[in-house]
Amino acid sequence: MNEFPPQQPRPAEPAARRPSVGVQIGKVKVGGGAPIVVQSMTNTDTEDPASTAKQIAELARAGSELVRITVNTPAAAAAVPHIRDRLAMMGVEVPIIGDFHYNGHQLLEREPACAEALAKYRINPGNVGFGKKHESQFASIIEKAIQYGKPVRIGANWGSLDQSMVARLMDENATRAEPWDASHVAREALIRSALDSATRAEELGLPRDRIILSCKVSGVQELIAVYRDISTRCDYALHLGLTEAGMGSKGITASSAALAVLLQEGIGDTIRISLTPEPGASRTGEVIVAQELLQTMGLRSFTPLVTACPGCGRTTSEFFQELAKVVQEHVREQMPLWRVKYDGVENLTLAVMGCIVNGPGESKHANIGISLPGNGEAPAAPVFIDGEKAMTLRGDNIAREFVGILDEYVARKYVARAD
Length: 419
Fold this sequence. Notes:
The protein is α/β, with parallel strands linked by helices. The chain folds into two domains: about 20-295, TIM Barrel; about 305-415, Sulfite Reductase Hemoprotein, domain 1. About 45% of the residues lie in helices and about 20% in strands. It has helices at about 50-60, 75-90, 105-110, 110-115, 135-150, 165-175, 180-205, 220-230, 250-265, 285-295, 320-340, 360-365, 400-415; strands at about 25, 30, 35-40, 65-70, 95-100, 120-125, 150-155, 210-215, 235-240, 245, 270, 275, 305-310, 340-345, 350-355, 370, 380-385, 390-395, 415. The strands form five sheets. It has an eight-stranded parallel beta barrel with strand order 3-4-5-6-7-8-9-11, surrounded by four helices. A five-stranded mixed beta sheet has the order 13-15-16-17-18, sandwiched between helices. α6 (about 165-175) packs across α7. The longest helix has 23 residues, at about 180-205.
């Protein structure tokens, strides 16, 4: 006699967040139980305040809660206060992070207005200085952070490790009864670089609640291994990101694969999706991917997402694809206004389905859903609102009518925020 298989366990909820020390960056809190923060980075020439401020504003309006900029030359450092002022005139309050390599100690010393204008400094311990200069140049940056009350991200990177540390760990490894493999040694060097630098920063007087750590690599499994390890060895807030993730679907897939595992395990306080943008494409793509990753995992809500069927032989018309695109683009265009005006609208669910097989069922599960006619079906599109059939749309203006229904629902359903 055939037996039914045993009942499968319910899908696991994301693990409880790893306890970490909270770090205040402007008005944004990272760690300490705060929601996971999305950040991004500009690719403009920082020496050009107008273009850099414009891109920062675009990233902020797309939902980036922290934006990092390159500060690599005296002119770039001098431009930072002007960038901040331009953003203020545009009504953009996103914290700006200064990314320093090699000469950060000089730039912060020579441009005090830059040191004051930035909300946070990011330094790479492998690029702060070499040999005998490392200690003094690292100390100089930390002292500026203390002077101006700024937090610091100590961001170790696989591509710029302190080679003297690597050599020392290799020598230590050679004496082990069971030596680690080379990749394990490299991971340990990365983690040790971050942790030792954090310890030294505290010794210099930087408070623990002004330190964030990151250990970035470009391989998915290596990133998972590194963060699993460092998360058990400290309580600093952790920034997650797969460095040099790549372009398009490869970059999205690799970043999502790595970060989703860590986030599911409760590791990570802030994330960036480091995508190479398509030529001419907006930099905001990486922000949208980060938001969608957190939202589809049930960790945060940023904007209404559209459930849409992939299409099959029942849906040879492209109309449902076009409608899904129109609805998603309309939501993204309206969200900056809705976010300010309505409380909770980011939790709205939508469905655009292409035929009768799953269309009515999926539409009933959404706040607003529409089931379009597939091949051979009557030319009618029932609309469901909060699980009940509300109306049927017909004709050539379905897209416009459906978007109008959406706007009316938002205005009626969600509480207007107080001015």
